[in-house]
Amino acid sequence: MPQSLRQHLLDTLAGLPAPTRYWVAFSGGLDSTVLLHLMAGLRRELGAELYALHVDHGLSGNAEQWSAQCRVFAESLGVPLRVESVKVSDRKEKGLEAAARKARYRVFRQVLGDGEVLLCAHHRDDQVETLLLQLLRGGGVRGLAAMPPQRPLGRGVLVRPLLEMNRQSLRHYALEHELGWIDDPSNFDTSLERNYLRHTLLPQLTERRAGVREVLARSAGHFAESARLLDELAMMDRKQADAGGNRLRAATLKGLSPARCRNLLRFHVRQLGLSVPAHKHLQRILDEVLPAAADAEPLVGWPGAEVRRYRDWLYFMLPLAPLTDKSLRLPWDGVSALVLPQGLGRLTPLRCRGEGVDNALLVGRECEVRLRQGGERLRLPGRDGHHALKKLYQEAGVPPWERERRPLLYVDGALAQVAGLWTAAEYSVAAGKEGLRLQWQPLAIEKEEQNDDNHNA
């Protein structure tokens, strides 16, 4: 085993917290074959279980044969192999490669257990190709940083231990150890941008200027450092503008320079797990949302996300589906969680002491979950008279789009509780007694893998 490659791998893994299990993302190609062979030879020194994970995308007529070849190779090394088949969808939006990658990483997140490490065999040449792709697409600093050496993924960590090694060193290792690997014909289709860069442009650049790959890889490292600094700045700005959750204060954003404001917006959106807006959408937020009148309720949307304003707050969220039926009347047994229709989220009953609805007042009563129709009134504990729900929402600063979606609990036809906010005085539990409070969870955000949307491999 070449000392430099072996030692580099050992040194990289030694810098990580000791995992209970290593997974190798194993496609059967040259790079992942070398990585799996290396890891199999290091098992005693690493002191953790080693597994291989192969994702069958079902996109080639050779898919079953490739899965079988992967299984044979893994068995020859004594490494357990897990094969997962996926269905590649959403091809139209960003193309087949991106759709396959999305499906693959979904498997990675599902498979990784707590504290486990997934090793991917991306190397320096992949990094250079990614940098060039991002340049051609007009990528920003974060895109030009290409792929990070490691990052959180699901419940574990994704690590690219070979990112500083070049493709030629991996090929030399494979030939020296007489390893066989799979050559996917699609990797030689130069109509695809990455393959064109790999097989046409980069060889020409290398012929003209020796060491160009090392220089470009170094540039990606510089961009990565710049991206980290921008994130640190955004974290400082976010502390001033963030009130928790998905909101940012408009007044704070207005006090930032346009570039600094856009930097904060990108960072905030990524932290929420939403898709990052293009520059034109960021500019619309600066031009249309921030200067809007307090009662204007402007909206800017982009694929997978939107930002709305209410008073001095900008709310970042998944796109709201239109309410096609506001006459919701959903029977409830007083015990079970409810998944609400029309993408309205989930209601979970919480037992709590001294707050919420008195359980005794629910026994034998007809309970329903409804939506606001208009004209609802509520008498609150400690306040005189009944108050219009509209006024209570305004006092509490509840945004308009949330008012029509927030579930209401009715008991025998009377409004008893506004989920997550208020309980009517006549239904409120006495101090020290057990009550019931409905927790409303709007449609959850499924987080995208962060800082890793630059690579299609």
Say what oligomer this is. single chain
Model regions low in confidence, pLDDT < 50 over at least 5 residues: 446-457
For the sheet with most strands, the description reads:
6 strands, mixed
**Corresponding CATH architecture of the largest domain:** 3-Layer(aba) Sandwich
The domain count comes to: 3
CATH superfamily of the largest domain, please? HUPs
Tell me the radius of gyration: 27 Å
Task: Determine the CATH topology of the largest domain.
Answer: Rossmann fold
Our count of helices gives 16
What is the first-to-last residue Cα distance? 26 Å
Helix content: 25-40%
Structural class: alpha+beta
Strand content: 15-25%
- Mean pLDDT over all positions: 90
CATH class of the largest domain: Alpha Beta
Q: What best-fitting shape do the alpha-carbon axes yield?
A: elongated
Trace the largest sheet across and list its strands. 3-2-1-4-6-5
Query: Count the strands?
Result: 21
